[in-house]
Amino acid sequence: MTQNRYSMSFTSGALLRAESVTAAQIYLETGDWEAARNNVITGNLLQMRTLNASRRIFREVASRLKQLTPEQLDLLPGGNEEEQGYLLWLAFCRRYRFIYDFAVEMVREKFVRLDYGLTHEDYEVFFGRKAEWHPEMDQISTETRSKQRQVVFKTMREADLLSTDNQIIPA
């Protein structure tokens, strides 16, 4: 029996810190995601070159931010970089079950074993284990899989959870 399907559409951007802070500020001012979307898009507040890019990035950011509690969302714009990184990593994990499972089953387990090195092979092993239970993952091309791995590692670096040489940084 398979578990719920994984959403694997997390290649739009890594942590998206600046975009998330902007979107959160506008949402907190308006109290409405649709109004926030309209303000962000019409004012090009995400500073994207095209309207489609602005829409796509706002949609991704909003889908992540909606995973935070009101208190967490309120903390985001005024938080320091470390707090913002942790909150955005939390939102990323909550938005994408695959990322959550990777964080718990691979990153946490390596950390508990005092094995702080996180390799691309670790990601591939994890991906392979999950693909056995999630047939939707068979549809992912090699290029997309590589891009997804790149986004996961980059997001962890931007959240200060992974060093440039792929060592897990304790939070």
User: How many extended strands?
Assistant: 0
Beta-strand percent range: under 5%
Order of helices and strands: HHHHHHHH
> How helical, in percent, are the residues?
55-70%
> How many DSSP helices?
8
Q: How is this structure best described in words?
A:
By secondary structure, the chain is mostly helical. It is globular and about 45 Å long.
Topology diagram in text:
Layout: H1 17-30, H2 33-42, H3 51-65, H4 70-78, H5 81-95, H6 97-112, H7 120-133, H8 142-158
Helix pairs in contact: 1-2, 1-3, 1-4, 2-3, 4-5, 5-6, 6-7
Task: Summarize the structure in short.
This protein has 171 residues and is mostly helical.
What labels describe this entry?
64% helix; 171 residues; mainly alpha; 0% strand
